[in-house]
Amino acid sequence: MVYLKCSVVVGKISEVIDGQTSLMTRMRFHGHIMMCKNCRRYFEQFKRVKEFAGKVTSDDLPPDFAHVMGFVMNEIENKDV
Fold first, then answer.
1. Which residue, among 35, 12, 40, has the nearest Cα to 25 in the 3D structure?
2. Could you tell me the pTM of the whole model?
3. Residue 4 half-sphere exposure, CB side, CA atoms within 13 Å?
4. DSSP 3-state helix, strand, coil percentages of the chain (rounded to 5)?
5. What is the pLDDT along the chain (81 residues), one digit of tens a residue?
6. Degrees to nearest 5, angle at CA 42 with 40 and 44
7. How would DSSP label each residue in 57-78?
8. Euclidean distance between the first and final Cα of the chain, in Å?
9. Is there a contact between 16 and 47 (Cβ–Cβ < 8 Å)?
């Protein structure tokens, strides 16, 4: 069986968690993270972030959240300029 590269594993994490991959991809994915501690750690962190992000409501955000996110998005968009 061919195992996935770390870059492919990272790109598939969300799809694997959401159950949007084929059985073969899931088998390769889990085979890889069983053997790669860095990908396994990243996978566990990603699952926790996704779990907590689903629990956040607008009441949980600070009053200046929209302003701060607007600034961050502008910085990201202008980074390549």
1. 12
2. 0.64
3. 22
4. 75, 0, 25
5. 556 799 999 999 999 999 999 999 999 999 999 999 999 999 999 999 988 887 888 888 899 999 999 999 998 888 765
6. 70
7. -GGGS-TTHHHHHHHHHHHHHH
8. 43
9. no
Which position has the token pair 């502008």? 74
Of residues 60, 54, 56, the one with CA closest to residue 18: 54
Residue with token string 């009441």? 59
- How distant is the alpha carbon of residue 79 from its chain centre? 22
Query: Which amino acid, 69?
Result: M
3-state secondary structure of 79: coil
Residue identified by tokens 């972030």 is 49
